[in-house]
Specification:
alpha+beta, six-stranded antiparallel β-sheet, 8 strands
């Protein structure tokens, strides 16, 4: 992999699609240096985990009227407090914290990256109760979300450039279980000009749960 430098994180005026530092951050994750993981503070990971725990419980909750009203009041109070902590998308910790599952992004099922380089990404993921599709299986849309995120990362690291999804096809081969650590592999097969062809697999042990292939496009300078 070519040497990647630690440029400042993008802002609204100089974002190059919002993904410019991704390859730099992943390289820093691999090298365990040259990246600031303090954004959000030392308690951010626990904060995100409690939110995930809330999402899991709400997914299966059937509250009484009394409990629903009590929870509504508590949530309103919490939302009012969190209003004071809201920042713009360029300042949020939830896309820079490679020390946390899924970079601290609660919109993604939590995954941990074991290795990343230009040859691909190896990660572990656990679909939680919140990601339930039915009959104790993960929702197919959640699986596609993970593939899209990791394939985008693989394309960015492979090219050293900003990319966006042009197409993504997911083939579901068997049931993907909840609350089980699974393995994900994502890699770029080849590139042609601005086109980057990518693939990914999701396994439960030796059993293939799903696989994906897609096309990502390297953005032109200044292209959103």
């Amino acid at each position: 992999m070519k040497e990647l430098h630690a440029d400042p994180l993008p802002d609204k005026e100089h974002h190059e699609g919002g993904f410019r530092p991704l390859s730099e951050l992943t390289a820093a994750h691999e090298a365990a240096k040259n990246v600031d993981i303090a954004r959000g503070g030392p308690h951010y990971g626990q904060f995100i985990e409690e939110i995930r725990g809330l999402m899991d419980r709400v997914r299966l909750a059937s509250p009484s009227d009394e409990l629903a009203l009590e929870a509504i009041g508590m949530l309103k109070e919490l939302n009012d407090k969190l209003d004071d902590a809201v920042v713009d998308e360029w300042s949020t910790p939830s896309w820079t914290r490679f020390d946390l599952p899924a970079r601290g992004n609660i919109t993604l099922p939590p995954f941990l990256i074991d290795h990343i380089d230009q040859q691909g990404i190896d990660a572990r993921i656990t679909f939680r109760t919140f990601h339930l599709g039915g009959n104790s299986a993960a929702h197919g849309g959640q699986i596609a979300t993970v593939f899209d995120d990791l394939l985008g990362m693989a394309a960015a690291v492979h090219t050293g450039s900003v990319t966006r999804t042009a197409s993504l096809t997911v083939d579901y081969r068997s049931v993907t279980p909840l609350n089980t650590e699974l393995s994900v592999r994502a890699w770029a097969e080849h590139s042609e000009g601005r086109k980057v062809y990518v693939r990914a697999t999701l396994h439960d042990g030796d059993r293939l749960c799903a696989e994906a292939h897609g096309l990502f496009i390297v953005l032109k300078p200044g292209q959103p």
